[in-house]
Protein backbone atom coordinates (compact mmCIF):
# COMPACT_ATOMS: atom_id res chain seq x y z
CA UNK A 1 0.00 0.00 0.00
CA UNK A 2 1.32 3.43 -0.84
CA UNK A 3 1.39 5.88 2.07
CA UNK A 4 -1.43 8.42 2.21
CA UNK A 5 0.35 11.70 2.81
CA UNK A 6 -2.76 13.61 3.83
CA UNK A 7 -3.53 11.04 6.51
CA UNK A 8 -0.15 10.71 8.18
CA UNK A 9 -0.54 9.87 11.86
CA UNK A 10 -4.03 8.36 11.62
CA UNK A 11 -4.46 4.91 13.17
CA UNK A 12 -3.96 1.81 11.00
CA UNK A 13 -7.60 0.70 11.09
CA UNK A 14 -8.66 4.06 9.61
CA UNK A 15 -6.00 3.87 6.92
CA UNK A 16 -7.05 0.34 6.01
CA UNK A 17 -10.61 1.53 5.50
CA UNK A 18 -9.45 4.38 3.28
CA UNK A 19 -7.25 2.06 1.22
CA UNK A 20 -10.20 -0.27 0.77
CA UNK A 21 -12.47 2.58 -0.38
CA UNK A 22 -9.83 3.66 -2.90
CA UNK A 23 -9.29 0.11 -4.18
CA UNK A 24 -13.04 -0.27 -4.71
CA UNK A 25 -13.35 3.17 -6.39
CA UNK A 26 -15.77 4.19 -3.68
CA UNK A 27 -13.98 7.13 -2.06
CA UNK A 28 -14.76 9.63 -4.83
CA UNK A 29 -18.48 8.80 -5.08
CA UNK A 30 -18.81 8.74 -1.29
CA UNK A 31 -17.39 12.26 -0.99
CA UNK A 32 -19.37 13.57 -3.95
CA UNK A 33 -22.50 12.22 -2.33
CA UNK A 34 -21.75 13.80 1.04
CA UNK A 35 -20.38 17.11 -0.28
CA UNK A 36 -22.34 17.90 -3.40
CA UNK A 37 -22.66 21.60 -2.76
CA UNK A 38 -20.40 23.88 -4.81
CA UNK A 39 -19.70 27.50 -3.89
CA UNK A 40 -19.58 30.71 -5.89
CA UNK A 41 -16.42 32.20 -4.39
CA UNK A 42 -14.55 32.46 -7.68
CA UNK A 43 -12.04 35.28 -7.27
CA UNK A 44 -10.03 37.13 -4.64
CA UNK A 45 -12.63 39.88 -4.22
CA UNK A 46 -15.37 37.35 -3.53
CA UNK A 47 -13.03 35.46 -1.23
CA UNK A 48 -12.35 38.62 0.77
CA UNK A 49 -16.08 39.24 1.21
CA UNK A 50 -16.65 35.64 2.21
CA UNK A 51 -13.88 35.71 4.84
CA UNK A 52 -14.99 39.09 6.14
CA UNK A 53 -18.58 37.91 6.53
CA UNK A 54 -17.51 34.88 8.58
CA UNK A 55 -15.21 37.05 10.64
CA UNK A 56 -18.00 39.58 11.31
CA UNK A 57 -20.23 36.79 12.51
CA UNK A 58 -17.76 35.11 14.84
CA UNK A 59 -14.62 37.16 15.48
CA UNK A 60 -15.69 40.73 15.19
CA UNK A 61 -13.21 42.04 17.74
CA UNK A 62 -10.03 40.41 16.45
CA UNK A 63 -7.43 42.19 14.31
CA UNK A 64 -8.56 43.58 10.96
CA UNK A 65 -8.14 41.46 7.87
CA UNK A 66 -5.30 42.23 5.54
CA UNK A 67 -5.09 40.86 2.04
CA UNK A 68 -7.14 37.77 1.27
CA UNK A 69 -6.37 35.75 -1.81
CA UNK A 70 -6.33 32.43 -3.58
CA UNK A 71 -2.76 31.25 -4.05
CA UNK A 72 -1.98 28.76 -6.83
CA UNK A 73 1.50 28.10 -5.50
CA UNK A 74 0.45 27.23 -1.99
CA UNK A 75 0.93 23.60 -1.06
CA UNK A 76 -1.85 22.54 1.22
CA UNK A 77 0.11 20.10 3.33
CA UNK A 78 3.26 22.11 3.67
CA UNK A 79 1.24 24.87 5.26
CA UNK A 80 -0.84 22.61 7.45
CA UNK A 81 -3.97 23.05 5.37
CA UNK A 82 -3.56 26.74 4.85
CA UNK A 83 -1.22 29.51 5.73
CA UNK A 84 -1.18 32.39 8.06
CA UNK A 85 1.15 35.31 7.93
CA UNK A 86 1.32 37.97 10.56
CA UNK A 87 2.52 41.20 9.05
CA UNK A 88 3.23 44.09 11.33
CA UNK A 89 3.31 47.53 9.79
CA UNK A 90 4.18 50.79 11.39
CA UNK A 91 1.48 53.44 11.00
CA UNK A 92 2.43 56.83 12.38
CA UNK A 93 4.55 55.33 15.11
CA UNK A 94 1.87 52.87 16.18
CA UNK A 95 2.42 49.23 15.43
CA UNK A 96 -0.63 47.89 13.71
CA UNK A 97 -1.08 44.21 13.15
CA UNK A 98 -2.79 43.13 10.00
CA UNK A 99 -3.30 39.65 8.71
CA UNK A 100 -2.94 38.26 5.27
CA UNK A 101 -4.88 35.11 4.50
CA UNK A 102 -3.89 32.93 1.57
CA UNK A 103 -6.09 30.03 0.58
CA UNK A 104 -4.69 27.30 -1.69
CA UNK A 105 -6.43 27.56 -5.04
CA UNK A 106 -7.53 23.91 -4.85
CA UNK A 107 -10.34 25.27 -2.64
CA UNK A 108 -11.75 27.37 -5.47
CA UNK A 109 -13.18 24.23 -6.98
CA UNK A 110 -13.65 22.27 -3.78
CA UNK A 111 -17.06 21.69 -2.18
CA UNK A 112 -18.49 24.61 -0.21
CA UNK A 113 -17.99 22.91 3.15
CA UNK A 114 -14.25 22.54 2.63
CA UNK A 115 -13.79 26.19 1.72
CA UNK A 116 -15.63 27.09 4.90
CA UNK A 117 -13.46 24.73 6.93
CA UNK A 118 -10.20 26.16 5.64
CA UNK A 119 -11.37 29.75 6.12
CA UNK A 120 -12.46 28.93 9.67
CA UNK A 121 -8.99 27.47 10.25
CA UNK A 122 -7.29 30.62 9.01
CA UNK A 123 -9.62 32.91 10.95
CA UNK A 124 -8.91 31.00 14.16
CA UNK A 125 -5.25 31.80 13.59
CA UNK A 126 -6.07 35.50 13.92
CA UNK A 127 -6.39 34.76 17.62
CA UNK A 128 -4.28 31.66 18.17
CA UNK A 129 -0.97 31.11 16.40
CA UNK A 130 -0.59 27.49 17.45
CA UNK A 131 -2.74 24.46 16.76
CA UNK A 132 -3.63 24.14 20.43
CA UNK A 133 -6.80 23.49 22.39
CA UNK A 134 -7.94 27.12 22.29
CA UNK A 135 -7.36 27.14 18.54
CA UNK A 136 -9.62 24.12 17.94
CA UNK A 137 -12.25 25.55 20.29
CA UNK A 138 -12.41 28.60 18.05
CA UNK A 139 -12.69 26.36 15.01
CA UNK A 140 -15.59 24.37 16.44
CA UNK A 141 -17.25 27.58 17.59
CA UNK A 142 -17.34 28.76 13.96
CA UNK A 143 -17.99 25.33 12.44
CA UNK A 144 -19.39 22.80 14.95
CA UNK A 145 -18.47 19.87 12.67
CA UNK A 146 -14.93 21.20 12.15
CA UNK A 147 -13.13 17.96 13.05
CA UNK A 148 -15.25 15.85 10.72
CA UNK A 149 -14.76 18.41 7.96
CA UNK A 150 -11.01 18.41 8.43
CA UNK A 151 -10.87 14.63 8.22
CA UNK A 152 -13.11 14.58 5.16
CA UNK A 153 -10.99 17.29 3.57
CA UNK A 154 -7.98 15.01 4.00
CA UNK A 155 -9.96 12.28 2.25
CA UNK A 156 -10.90 14.72 -0.52
CA UNK A 157 -7.27 15.72 -1.11
CA UNK A 158 -6.29 12.05 -1.07
CA UNK A 159 -8.96 11.32 -3.66
CA UNK A 160 -7.79 14.21 -5.87
CA UNK A 161 -4.34 12.67 -5.88
CA UNK A 162 -5.28 9.07 -6.52
CA UNK A 163 -7.86 10.23 -9.07
CA UNK A 164 -5.12 12.05 -10.98
CA UNK A 165 -2.94 8.93 -11.36
ZN1 LIG B 1 -2.95 26.25 10.90
From TrEMBL:
<keyword id="KW-0378">Hydrolase</keyword>
<dbReference type="InterPro" id="IPR053136">
    <property type="entry name" value="UTP_pyrophosphatase-like"/>
</dbReference>
<dbReference type="Pfam" id="PF01863">
    <property type="entry name" value="YgjP-like"/>
</dbReference>
<dbReference type="GO" id="GO:0016787">
    <property type="term" value="F:hydrolase activity"/>
</dbReference>
<protein>
    <submittedName>
        <fullName>Metal-dependent hydrolase</fullName>
    </submittedName>
</protein>
<dbReference type="InterPro" id="IPR002725">
    <property type="entry name" value="YgjP-like_metallopeptidase"/>
</dbReference>
<feature type="domain" description="YgjP-like metallopeptidase">
    <location>
        <begin position="93"/>
        <end position="153"/>
    </location>
</feature>
Amino acid sequence: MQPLKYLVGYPPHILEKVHALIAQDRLGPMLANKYGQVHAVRNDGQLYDYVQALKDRHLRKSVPLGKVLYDGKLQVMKHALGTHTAISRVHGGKLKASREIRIASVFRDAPAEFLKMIVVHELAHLKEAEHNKAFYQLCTHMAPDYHQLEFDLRLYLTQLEVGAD
